[in-house]
Amino acid sequence: MLRRNRFGFRMRRRSFSNRLLQVLVVLSVLILFVYFLLYALRLGNDSLGPDYSWLKTRNMSHFILPDEDTTLLEPRVNHCSPTEKLRLVMFIHSVPGHFQARRVIRKTWLKEMLGYPGVKGFFILGQAESEKEQTDVVKEHGLHDDIVQHNFIDTYVNLTLKTTFMLKWLTSNDCHHSKFVMKLDEDSFINPAKMWDSLEHALLHTATAKSLINYLPPTAATTTKSKQDLFIAESVDYLLLGHVFQTVPIRDPTNRWYLPSRFYPLNIFPKFLSGTGYVFSNSISQMLYQCALKSPFINLEDVFLTGLCATTQMGFKFTHHPGFWPSKPSIGPNYVCYYKTYPLVHPLMPDEMEEMWVKIKDDHNCETFYFAFVQYATSFVDLFRNLFRL
Ligand SMILES: *[C@@H]1O[C@H](CO)[C@@H](O)[C@H](O)[C@H]1NC(C)=O
Ligand SMILES: *[C@@H]1O[C@H](CO)[C@@H](O)[C@H](O)[C@H]1NC(C)=O
């Protein structure tokens, strides 16, 4: 009896602390459950994200209208003559109201870039927000003759349309005779000499044309059979250069890069090139355009074109360039040596860009142990940030 009593007492004591533990465990599970439930509800709540009620179809042809003229403005002078040896055509995605950004770009890096042989540069825009704004854009275009404007509403979720309109204009224009095309954001800072170098030294990949037969333009597919045979027989040399991203979709509707899961249900992206600046060969621009027209709309232009089209569907390979910085280096992001050394750093506001342009022209020495150390430390920090997705 005594033993039992003692045993019972012990049991009771133990069971008291056990209970407490149980209660704690159950409570924390409940709290976690409610937390994840709320989180999931928030993630699933499209009403927090951008309004897609206008998107009645995801068929890109309905927006791009490949057989119709959709340009509102384009250069009056034919900048890309078919006889000129063109090396690079740059398209800067710009917002109609961002007059200052274009003004700064024109008088800084773009001006110098255009001094290299066979380089052309255009700003690509959608509709202006008001008639007044459109009048100003037309005036600006009158002065500089470097704006390509298409008929769509220029919003962040419509950047995929902007990229596809860029391809539409390019492929219907003599500019597609240039060797390379570059797509840029208006807040990307370019170091012309370094950018030129990275194109000079880029090695091309080769694809068999056979694997690309589905992406021939409709006209080429219907022209003489011999022409088509020729195309099939040949291989295609190409370059897809930029910062290669290997990442996952963001499902938080309040995030700028939110991707609704009904657009893309998988939880991993194919490799893609950061939209802050990527280069592709004109040898594949027509095929990229055809692929874009056939692919259902998603709101992330770089994932759409360089990921889902170029990688997943067409099987192209990328050339990663560590000197293309989609987000500024984490240590001393405004340190002048980054901008003197790397072809592309993003993002810079127009006044920062203007300031940095002056700075990179001074004779600041970057061949120092200090800068080597800073770069080393930066890559270390970035590695950690990527590992833990900070
Ligand atoms: C998209 O629209 C075009 C033009 O209306 C049509 O020819 C094409 O078949 C459509 N594509 C799909 C996948 O529905
Ligand atoms: C995107 O463009 C389409 C087609 O021009 C337009 O109907 C829609 O309103 C635009 N979306 C937004 C959010 O502005």
TrEMBL record:
Keywords: Glycoprotein, Glycosyltransferase, Golgi apparatus, Membrane, Signal-anchor, Transferase, Transmembrane, Transmembrane helix. Its EC number is 2.4.1.-. The chain crosses the membrane at residues 20-41. It holds the Pfam family Galactosyl_T. GO terms for cellular component: Golgi membrane. GO terms for biological process: protein O-linked glycosylation. Belongs to the glycosyltransferase 31 family. This is Hexosyltransferase. The lineage of its organism: Eukaryota, Metazoa, Ecdysozoa, Arthropoda, Crustacea.
